[in-house]
Every structure is written in C-alpha cells, then in structure tokens.
Amino acid sequence: MTERTVGSTRVLIANRGEIALRVIRACRELGLDTVAVYGPGEESARHVLAADDAYRIPESATLPYLDIPAILDIAARCGASIIHPGYGFLSENAAFADGVVGTGLTFAGPSAAAMRALGDKIAARNVAIRAGVPVVPGTADPVASVDEARAWADVNGYPVAVKAAGGGGGRGFRVALGPDLLEDAFLGSSGEAKRYFANPDVFLERYVANPRHIEVQIIADGHGNVVALGERDCSVQRRHQKLIEETPSPIVTPELRARLLDSAVKLANEVGYVSAGTIEYLVNDAGEYFFLEMNTRIQVEHTITEMVTGIDLVKEQLRIAQGEALSFTQADIDPRGHAIQCRINAEDAGRDFAPTPGVLTGYREPGGIGVRVDSAMETGAAILPAYDSMIAKLVTWGRDRDEALDRMSRALGEFVIEGVATTIPFHARVMDHPVFRAGQATTAFVPEHPEVIPEPQVVTPAEPSDDQAPVETVIEVNGRRLKVSIHGGIALGAPVAATNGNRPTKRGGAGKKKAGGGDLLESPIQGTVIRLNVAEGQQVAAGELICVVEAMKMENEITAHKAGSITALHIAQGASVQIGGAIADIKD
User: Where are the alpha helices (DSSP H) in 395-534?
Assistant: First the structure.
C-alpha cells in the first residue's frame, strides 16, 4: 500500500481478524484514522479492507504479527501515533510496549512495567500477596527440575498444577494427579512454555479440583481511577481454554461479588495499572476464591461485559491512551440482564476438539434482538493453520439468564458455517444440558459430561497447497482498486456436512485421535509433530501416547488405537503431518 499523510490521529492495529475489525469500528466512532497490517495471503481479509490504510508485513522468520521491528517500522512510515495490540500476539509483550513508547508512539494498553509485574505468574502471585488477595499455596520461585518438583509435591501433596511462569490462555498448564504423572506434566508444561513464550520457567501450585473460573473486568485511567465492571463465569473449558463465558455468574452472591471486585481493584492499584485488564480467580465449593492470574489486555470475552453495562471497553482504552479520564465512575456501573458468549471455533468436538483449518464454503450469521456476532469471516474466507481456530464470537443478551440461554440456542440454530467442522453442535448440546441450565457447570463440566460431545463431523478437509495456481482477484481499499495475486492458498475440498447446530448432519468417521484401520495409525489432524513419545520396536498399550501434534496453537495427543508392537514409524519430531497421514504401524 502507498504511504499517505492525514490530519487525524492514526491508530495502527497490530493484530488481525475479528479483534482488528473490532478496534477499527471503535476508532470509527471516535473519529480516529485506522491502519491495518497483514501477513501473506491476507490481502483481502475483512480487517484489511475495513481500515483506512493497510500495510503488508514483510516475510520474516516468525509469524508476521510477532515481528516487532517490522510493525514499528510500518507505524513510523504510515504516520501512526497510537498502536492498539488487540489480544494475543504482542498484546502482553513488554518488549513491544517498550518499543512502541521508545519510538515516540502511544501504546493502547498498560505500561511495560505493569506487564512485567503481572505477566510473569510468579511475580503476579507476589503482587497479589502484597495486595492482600488470596492465592493458592504454591512455589515462590521457578522450579528448576523434576526432582525439585517431586520434593515440593511430597511435602504439599497432590494433585499438583504445573504452570508456565510467562504463560496465559491455558498454555503451559498441566496437572499431575499423582507422582507417576509429575514428570510428564513438568516436561510438557516447560516445553510448551518455551515454544509459546520463549520462557521455559514453570512453578507449582496445589490444584483446586472442580472449581469455578471467575474473572473480573477492570479498567483504569492515568488519573488514578480504577473501576471494576463485574464478573464473568468462564468455567466451561477444554484443555484449560475457555469455550463459553457468561455474566453475571450464576453462583456469585452479592457478598462474594463485592469481595472479588474489591480484590481486583486492590491488585490493579498495587502496580499502578492503566488500561483494560482482567483478574482471574478460582472459586471452590465453599465460596473461597484464589487469585489465578491477571491478563494485561482486552479479553476475548469483553463482549459480554459490554452487553450488560453498555460500555464500549475498546473506546475507553483508546480514550485512556490519549490521556483522557474514564467516562464513568464505579457508581455508574449498573449491569442489567444476562449475557453469554459461545466461541465458535473451527474444531471438531467429536474428535477431542481437533482443529479443522480450511475454507468456508458457506457462512451466514444469525440475527435478531439481543444477538451480537464479532467475526471477520465470510464465505470464501480461510481459517489458516498458522493462527487461532476462532471463527466468530456469538453473544446473546437477555433480561435474565433463561432468556439469554434460549436466545443463544435459537442463534446457534440460525448460524450456518460450511466447509469446516465447528463447535456449533457442541454449544447447542451444552445450552440444553440440565447441569449447565441450572448454572452448576465447573471447569470439569466437559470431561464429566461426555454426552455434550457430538459425533465426529464428516467434512472433507481443506489442506494447504503450495503448488496451487495463483488466485487473481481485485480488492478495493480507500476507493482504489488493486489487482492482487494470492499464492499458496488453501486447496478447497467439497464439504459433505453442514455444521449448523440444530440441523441434522451427516456423521461418522474416526474416533478421538486414534484414527486408522487395522495396523495403521493415521493422523486425524493436520499439524507439526512437536513430540515423539515412542520408538520402533516398542510395545505400547491401547490408548498410550504416541506423539503430540501442534495445530492452530493447540497441542493434540495422538494415542495408540490398539495394543501391540510399533513395527514402523512414519513421522519424526518437527515433521509436518496431514489429515489421514500415516503415523505408525502397530502390529499385535
């Protein structure tokens, strides 16, 4: 894109997809000029076309949205004065925040110092302790070895949670129910932490079994004002990653709410926090709460807080970045009604939520009163393997919880997404489940209620194709028509199943990550082998871990489909594998 100079304040959004589009819309309402950045193959993405200007991030050794020098260079060339990081990618990267401020720009988020104080979970625990916020018993420093972990667990007991010190979003989190599982949990957590956060440090906590995951949204300005906007219940999860969020929580009493919000404000004040942030807690059956972590960014689920308060949190972030005070006080917060969000992901819940990248051959969003869809997808858009699997955030509001849930069930039934498997059938089952309807779902809800897991969806996968002929298209940006050649697109497979939540679908196929017939174990997903757990000639039991395949920012365990001897391994660590690709031969 060509450079240009404008008179208004320019905001560069260092992110992609729906959150980039979300920030662009907030900027529009504030009269701010917007600049989008994008990676290879994203020239016609909705967030690119929606912005006032757009710049392609040059090829680099890392993902485009993690290339700090390139993003800062674009910001300088395009005349941006503010950078909004969205969530994920560089949003909680203190070095990025330092780089933005160091180049004379404004970072629409907290200070690098606050990120460092709260981004490292061990340091954050110490901040919570100083602020008088309850924490789960755990180690005060990183644990250097499995032996050190065993020594702590022998004294403090099992189950033990092994957590990445610099992690977030469920990454680098493992649970050891007993001594025999501690080594795998330690190595798995440390390895994932190193890959995702470039920091292998882990620490230990006593694992709180079957808690509720409750979080409090706060926002603070540079004038000493900190406001808590209520709590969200995020207990329905898979692999410690959220699937459904709602506000208010069905189990939080007015007395508990007051304590949670007060603790959140104290924690923010302890580090002089500025901008939007979320304090996360675990709440046990006795109503005791424990600090879990603080996310120093806007959250995926900020939508439901907006629905019940009527406050645009992203606009407040942008105002704060420009030096303004909050446009409301704590006394102004009067949440009304109930809101719920379902994360509509390109995942097959019937195959243990295996990611399903590909091209959307059909896409139609639901509508009607009380329905909000945050998405950047449309028919023909690609769910790229390199990025998160989220397609859309489906949000409904009702005057009470029952109305919000009924409205969600209706909206799920209207949502049409074709070409990839999605989590819509799973969400539809959860909405009708008596435990969830009663507001009793804990973080153990999904494993304890396998009846909410639908049958595997039969969808011909869309696989990357490097030799696919370039696609020539024309896009329009700022009134200029540009001819674009897209190389290395997604090879489109014909879908054989709709993924609408309430319509009959054609089901069948392989079981959970044990695909294959006879002696051959096949991969049910496309990704990269990041861990190989066996060797040729080894005897394995049915269900024993063979390898771990990373796909769309998720680690997927592939296990033996039967007992026997591994007579051939068709993969190696670091190798790519396709759906249906050979993993190993296992003979009786």
Answer: 401-414, 424-432, 434-437, 445-448
End-to-end Cα, the chain, rounded Å: 60
Decide if 34 contacts 13 (C-beta within 8 A): yes
Q: What is the pLDDT of residues 3-27, one digit of tens each?
A: 434 457 999 999 999 999 999 999 9
Single out the residue of 356, 544, 556 nearest to residue 463, CA to CA: 356
- Give the model confidence (pLDDT) of 385-401 as tens digits: 889 999 999 999 999 99
SS3 assignment for 119-133:
HCHHHHHHHHHHHCC
The pLDDT value given to residue 501: 38
Token pair, residue 419, equals 């070409």
Closest CA to 119 of 208, 213, 201: 201
Is the separation of the CB atoms in 276 and 302 below 8 Å? yes
Rounded (5°) CA angle 374-380-384: 70
Strands 82-84 and 106-107: parallel
What is the Cα–Cα distance from 526 to 68, expressed in whole angstroms?
28
pLDDT in tens, 440-451: 999 999 999 999
The gap from C-alpha 241 to its chain's centroid, in whole angstroms, comes to: 7
Check if the beta carbon of residue 195 is closer than 8 Å to that of residue 238: no
DSSP class of residue 396 equals E
Q: Which residue, 62, 63, 43, is CA-closest to 54?
A: 43
State the burial class of residue 49 (Cβ atoms within 10 Å of its Cβ: 0-12, 13-18, 19+): middle
- DSSP letter at 180 equals G
What's the pLDDT tens digit per position in 484-534?
Answer: 444 444 443 333 333 343 333 332 333 334 444 589 999 887 788 988 989
For the chain, give the number of residues: 588
Distance from C-alpha of 162 to C-alpha of 202, rounded to nearest angstrom: 7
Beta bridge partners of residue 464, listed in sequence order: 490
pTM of the model: 0.81
All domains of the chain in start order, with CATH: 10-108 (3.40.50.20), 137-206 (3.30.1490.20), 212-452 (3.30.470.20), 520-587 (2.40.50.100)
DSSP track, 217-252: EEEE-TTS-EEEEEEEEEEEEETTEEEEEEES-TT-
Contacts of 468 (CB under 8 A, 6+ apart): 487, 488, 489, 491
Tokens 């070895």 -> residue: 145
pLDDT in tens, 311-364: 999 999 999 999 999 999 999 999 999 999 999 999 999 999 999 999 999 999
The pair of three-digit structure tokens given for residue 259, joined into one six-digit string: 């304590």
Cα distance between residue 492 and residue 232, in whole Å: 39
> Could you tell me the two tokens for 28?
């529009």
User: What whole-number distance in Å separates Cα of residue 27 and Cα of residue 21?
Assistant: 10
In degrees, to the nearest 5, what angle opens at C-alpha 238 toward C-alphas 502 and 151? 165
Q: CA-CA distance, 145 to 163, in Å (whole number)?
A: 13
> Is residue 258 helix, strand or coil?
helix
Location of structure tokens 């403090």 = 156
User: Mind giving me the DSSP string for 292-341?
Assistant: EEEE-S--TTHHHHHHHH---HHHHHHHHHTTPPPSS-GGG----SEEEE
